[in-house]
Amino acid sequence: MDRFTGVVLVTGEHGVGKTSFGLEAGPPAKMLFVDNDLKGRSTVDQIRTDEFPFGRYVDMIGLTAGKKALDSHTIGLKMIDSIEPDAFEVIMWDTWPEFASTCYDYVSAHPGEFRDPDNWAAMGKIRKGEEYKEARFYEASLISRLHKLAPLVILVSHLKNQYLNNAPTGKEIPAVSKAVDRVCNMRLWLRHNPAGTVPIGLVLKNIDRKEYDASLDRLRTVQILPTRITPQPGETSLWDAIHRYYEAPAGLRAPLSHEIPDDFENSIVQGTLTEDQRLSWLYAIKQERDREAEELAMSMEENGARAREMQAEGATFPQIAKELSLTIGQVVEMLNSGAF
Question: How is the chain split among helix, strand and coil, in percent rounded to 5?
C-alpha cells in the first residue's frame, strides 16, 4: 500500500508511546521532529548514537525558554518559514497545544491581518471572543501550511480534564482546540496494551476510501479502521496494524471481538460519560453550587452590613446602590428585610 498521508492527531495518557508512534511513521532521514515535550531529545540522541540518519530536530523548549507567548509564536513561525518544500515526508510536532495557545497572542497583536478595524467589536469582552475565534481559524491555517510542506503531519497532544458547567466530569479529553478536530484526517487515542508493548489505538476519527460498485454504477465509502485497533502477533508498531487494515478494510465486514471497545473505551470514542463519571460530575456540580450559594450569602451579609452602616451615616439609597454596585430596588429590599 501507499504510505498514509494527511494530518493525524495522536493523544493518550503519559508514557503510552505517542512520541514513538510519530517517529515510526516514516523514514527517519525524511522526518522533521519539532520537540516541545522534553523526552524527544534523548530519543533523537539515541537514534543518532546508533548512526541512523535523521532529518531535522528542533528543540522548541530550548528556543522558547523564558520567552513571552508572542515571542514564542514568532520563533515558531520562523521555524515553519525555514522548512523547504518536499524536504520532509513527515513533520511531527510533539506536543502541539503549547504553540497553538500562542495563536491568540498573535491575533491580538496583529488584528489588522484578520479583520478590518470596523469589523471588530468595540466591547472588550465581545472583542476577546472574536479574537479567540480568529485564533482557531489561524491555527487551522498553520496546520494546513504544514501539510503543504510534508505529506504527513502528526500532532501530538496530552490530555486535560473535561469540565461541564464549571464542574469536572472525571473524564479526560485531548488538550487541543476545535481547530485540530476540524482539520485532522485521523485522530487516535493510544492506550496501554496489557498483552504487549505496542499500544492499542482507539479511533476518534476514522479514515476511508472510495470504491466503485459496478453493479450500482456508484461510488461507495469504506471505513478503513475499526473503532479499536489491537496489534496482532508479529506487529511491532501500531502502523503495522493500520497498514493491515488498508489491505483489508474493517468496514467491509462485521467487527471482530478485539475490535470492539469496552464501555470505558466507548465513552472515550463517543465523548460520553460512564455511569461513574456521570455520578462524579453530578456531585461536583452540587459542590460548585453549594460553594456559589455560600459565597452569595457571605456577599449579601457583607453588603447588608455596609448598607446599614452607610444609612446610619446619612447616605441616600442611590449613594448606597452606587457604592455596592446594586440597584436601588435591591438596596431597599435589603434594608427593609431586617435580615442584617
Answer: 50, 20, 30
Query: Strand (E) positions, 30-151?
Result: 31-35, 56-59, 90-94
Q: What is the DSSP string of 283-311?
A: HHHHHHHHHHHHHHHHHHHHHHHHHHHHH
* Ranges of each domain in the chain: 6-191, 198-266, 277-337
CATH topology of domain 277-337: Arc Repressor Mutant, subunit A (1.10.10)
List the end-to-end C-alpha distance of the chain, in Å, as a whole number.
78
In angstroms, what CA-CA distances link 81 with 62, 85, 98, 149? 19, 10, 19, 10
Query: Does residue 222 carry a pLDDT above 90?
Result: yes
Q: Which three cell numbers stand for residue 167?
A: 464542574
CB distance 13 to 161 below 8 Å: no
What integer is the mean pLDDT of 85-109? 96
* Rounded CA separation 69/101 (Å): 8
Cα 9 to Cα 186: distance, rounded to the nearest angstrom: 6
Q: Is the pLDDT of residue 340 over 50?
A: no
Confidence category of residue 1, pLDDT binned at 50, 70, 90: very low
Least confident of 131-140, 232-241, 308-317: 308-317
Q: What is the dihedral of CA 143, 148, 152, 158, to 10 degrees?
A: -10
Give how far Cα 155 sits from Cα of 24, 71, 186, 258, Å: 14, 21, 11, 27
In whole angstroms, how far apart are CA 208 and each of 184, 217, 220, 273?
A: 13, 19, 10, 27
pTM to 2 decimals? 0.80
